[in-house]
Amino acid sequence: MNLTNQIANVISIALENEWTAEQVELLLEKPKQTELGDIAFPCFTLAKKFRKAPQQIALELSAKLEDQLIASVQVAGGYVNIFLNQAFVTNQVLHSIMTDLQKYGSKNSMHEKIVIDFSSPNIAKPFSMGHLRSTVIGNSLANIAEKNGYEALRINHLGDWGTQFGKLIVAYKLWGNKEKILAAPIEELLKIYVHFHNLAEKDDSLNDQARAAFKSLEEGDEEALTLWNWFKEASLKEFQIIYELLGVHFDSYAGEAFYNDKMTRVVDDLKKKGLLIESNGAFVVELEDMPPSLITKKDGATLYATRDLAAAIYRHQTFHACKTFYVVGNEQTLHFKQLFSVLEKMGFEWSKNLVHVPFGMMLKDGKKMSTRKGKVILLADVITDAIKTAQHNIEEKNPTLENKEEVAKQVGVGAVIFNDLKNDRMNDIEFSLEQMLNFEGETGPYVQYTNARICSLLQKGSFEVEAFTFSSIGVEAWPIIQLLEDFPRVVEKAFDNADPSQIAKFSLLLARQFNKYYARTKILADDGTTSSKLAFAFTVSVVLKESLRLLGVPAPEKM
């Protein structure tokens, strides 16, 4: 039971259970000013039930609030302002962290699965900064889901099917150089893909050739399949380098092509249920309050919608997940509304458990990055620059550091991931290498360095977990204790809102508060309080490390 639950229970008992602890908890507030207490309970909602003025209720209630959690109570208008027993709460919170360590804030396993569909780059195209958002948001959400007691199934729904492969096959046959592609597959495939689009803007016959090439691929043409497999294997090899750097793994790489033999059943099912309607030679499902969902084109070729329907049905039958997150940009919002609506029309009750987790775009000069126009910033280049900058900083500030290369990688990659996740998910992000690699202020390296500073203190003070004690750690520690106590709720809220930025912002606030404490307090003072202060610092490190882990950011112990 957390602190808010406990206070709500105390108030409920004082109200003689006329208002349940759950009802009380919904009303509790955190005062904006510290002089107004730690927790405030407004009595205005109770006025009608008790037929008294809110201030009168507050006065009567304040006289009954007695508990070891509470140091004092003040009434201000219709509010009961509660000042907590700092020593008692501090002891309670720190013992809880020391007992659970990295499990602090974790919920017990519910033995329920959550499918998280994320990253999903198109094969034969470079892994650009545009792919970063889905990858790191999805990975963090999987970590957060596990922290909340779920089993997370990470699925990389590769873009390995569709008309673009018809374009690439045509482009390769017209301009491809096998030796060059073998030497640098993604780079060369991108060149011919961009060249195709530049020419196709003036010569529409190229698009007709591409549609025909994709149709032959769907029908199992041997030459087309051989080229497609080659493009896919070359892409995955390069993608894997990026995933390893980011610390991201998947349980499945089943992409769009995996569902190629499962779509006929979906189309037949839609026909049987009377949902498929012919429209200018194509087949669609009519929907309320939105455009119809296109299922097959005039030439019979399938689309995203057909494959996503097949994927949703297959996953439900295979994994029996309680929820599925689709971590895909907000420009696909209509597509997912249509997808979920079609599944609902098909009579699948579980469609209500499918959730689109949208996010803003990564912009360059205010515009969306475009692969077909060749306007991309490669993620590998950004990570390389980030690591080089971290190496430069280490050489300047700590040239004798052990494992400099490994630490530079952890800091550089952490900077890239944290820069994305600290932003509200729905916000667009303007790409700025300078901002991303700024190692001061609201950055991943700032949080990492705070934790490394604590690790250094613990080493200097010869701290041992088994021998910790708590006594005086100073009143300056109270804001940090409140943050530490709040961590489990932050984790829960981040999951409920599918928003890792809440954990990133929490870690920044915790790091900032600890650095204030460190500046005002001599932790290694020879006054009998060192053991307690080191134990306190250790609990901060535990929560900082866990916050970074949930974001997918490494936490080096030396920097």
Q: Could you describe the largest sheet, including whether it forms a barrel?
A: 4 strands, parallel
Class based on secondary structure composition and strand pairing: alpha/beta
Q: What does the overall shape look like?
A: globular
Gyration radius, in Å: 28 Å
SS strand fraction: 5-15%
What is the arithmetic mean of pLDDT? 92
Helix content: 40-55%
Task: Outline the low-pLDDT stretches.
Answer: none
* Tally of strands: 13
What's the N-to-C terminus distance?
Answer: 37 Å
Helix segment count?
A: 21
For the largest sheet, list the strands in their spatial order. Answer: 5-4-9-10
Walk me through the structure.
The chain has 559 residues and is of the alpha/beta class. The protein is 53% helix and 10% strand. It is built from 21 helices and 13 strands. The strands form four sheets. A four-stranded parallel beta sheet has the order 5-4-9-10. It has a three-stranded antiparallel beta sheet with strand order 1-3-2. Helix 6 crosses helix 19 (478-496), helix 7 crosses helix 9 (185-200) and helix 18 crosses helix 20 (501-520). The longest helix has 25 residues, at 222-246. The radius of gyration is 28 Å and the shape is globular.
Comma- or semicolon-separated keywords:
559 residues; alpha/beta; three-stranded antiparallel sheet; 21 helices; 53% helix; 10% strand
Quick overview of this protein structure:
With 559 residues, the chain is α/β, with parallel strands linked by helices. The protein is 53% helix and 10% strand. The protein has helices at residues 3-14, 21-27, 47-50, 54-62, 86-100, 129-147, 163-175, 178-183, 185-200, 205-218, 222-246, 263-272, 304-319, 333-345, 379-397, 404-421, 433-436, 444-460, 478-496, 501-520, 530-551, and strands spanning 39-42, 70-76, 79-84, 113-117, 151-155, 276-279, 282-285, 293-296, 323-327, 354-357, 362-364, 367-368, 429-430.
